[in-house]
Amino acid sequence: MAANINDNWVQRSGQFIGSSGMTFADQTAADIYYNNYFRTQGFNHRIAVICVSWGMSMLYIQEGTQAQEQWAPQGPMLNTVDVQDNGVHPAIGHANIPQVNRLTLAGSPAAHVINGQVTVGSSLPWHRRITVIRVGHHPMHYHQHQSRKGHEPFIVPPIRRDNRAAHWTMRSLSFGTQVSNYRSAGL
Q: What pairs with residue 120 in β-bridges?
């Protein structure tokens, strides 16, 4: 089966993408691409999120190509996204949220050692409502990846290439917390 290459725009009401799937330190997700993965020749960029410790993640940008499947951090590309902190979520229950999460604003500068290299990014504390958009409101593409197997640090599961794999085109990416951390796509 061929991959789903069409640009399926999310509805105005948004689209639940799923849990962030990162509970263990150095677990990484990178399934939000600047351009449609299957229609892009040459370089593409994607948003990667790594769990730096329990309760804190970091967003950074990677650059790579479909042909080589080699993705490398691109610190200067951080200026192509806007991370908006919409406050502690849920609004009640502050006493149960670790102080570091209450005091760290989403989007504040962060750094983490990834594969032996210091990588710069933006803080994404858990228990907050966070919105990420590309500067200029350019679209982003969610492409479903294969299920994670184990807790290997820094490993992003391969992209699914079958026609049943989800692909959503969006203008905003939201992070929040209910039972676990989740993500949703919006316009």
A: 111
Q: Which residue has the higher pLDDT, 22 or 138?
A: 138
What is the pTM (predicted TM-score) of this model?
Answer: 0.90
Is 79 exposed, middle or buried, given 0-12, 13-18 or 19+ CB atoms closer than 10 A? exposed
E-state strands within the chain:
15-19, 28-33, 43-53, 56-65, 71-73, 81-88, 109-114, 117-125, 128-134, 140-143, 167-170, 172-177, 181-186
Task: Retrieve residue 65's tokens.
Answer: 């190509």
Task: Give 50's pLDDT tier (boundaries 50, 70, 90).
Answer: very high
Q: Which two tokens stand for residue 105?
A: 């604003």
String of DSSP letters for 50-88: EEEETTEEEEEEEEEETTT--EEE-GGGGGGEEEEEEEE
Question: CB–CB of 72/62 below 8 Å?
Answer: yes
- pLDDT tens for 108-161 read 999 999 999 999 999 999 888 899 999 999 999 999 999 888 888 998 999 999
Q: How far is CA 106 from the centre of its chain?
A: 13
CB contact at 8 A, 10 and 168: yes
